[in-house]
């Protein structure tokens, strides 16, 4: 089972940016789809972005044009670049390989002035 370690979260003001990293224990060449999910306070976990092994990405409407997901298959890392952050982006962020049954510890993102 692949191991996942997320990092890069923190406290940022509205309009700010963060880049999250997800380091995996296996080469990503064998993982067709990687996703970033988030779980806000009192909310269900939701998928915000996914990327295929070939680099094709999809985004939730709430983050489209603000977030970018990308991956380095050989270096076993997936990133989530988050720009123009809003208070509603506050959540614990997790990466996971499809079908999204394996999780790391997550990284907390707090957007507040």
The count of β-strands is 10
Principal-axis shape: globular
Q: Which stretches of 5+ consecutive residues score pLDDT under 50? A: none
Largest sheet: 6 strands, mixed
- Percent of residues in beta strands: over 45%
Helical proportion? under 10%
Query: How big is the Rg?
Result: 13 Å
From the N-terminal CA to the C-terminal CA, the straight-line distance is 39 Å
Strand neighbour order, sheet with most strands: 2-10-9-4-5-6
Oligomeric category: single chain
Instruction: Return the structural class.
Output: mainly beta
Question: How are the SSEs placed, and which strands pair?
Answer:
Layout (H helix, E strand, L loop, with lengths): L3 E4 L2 E3 L5 E7 L8 E7 L6 E7 L4 E3 L7 E6 L4 E6 L8 E7 L9 E5 L2
Parallel strand pairs: 2-10
Antiparallel strand pairs: 1-3, 3-8, 4-5, 4-9, 5-6, 7-8, 9-10
Structural account:
A hairpin with a 4-residue loop joins strand 7 and strand 8 (77-82). The protein is globular. It is mainly β. The mean pLDDT is 96. The chain has strands at residues 4-7, 10-12, 18-24, 33-39, 46-52, 57-59, 67-72, 77-82, 91-97, 107-111. The chain has a six-stranded mixed β-sheet, with no helix packed on it. The chain has a four-stranded antiparallel β-sheet with strand order 1-3-8-7, with no helix packed on it. The chain has no helices and ten strands.
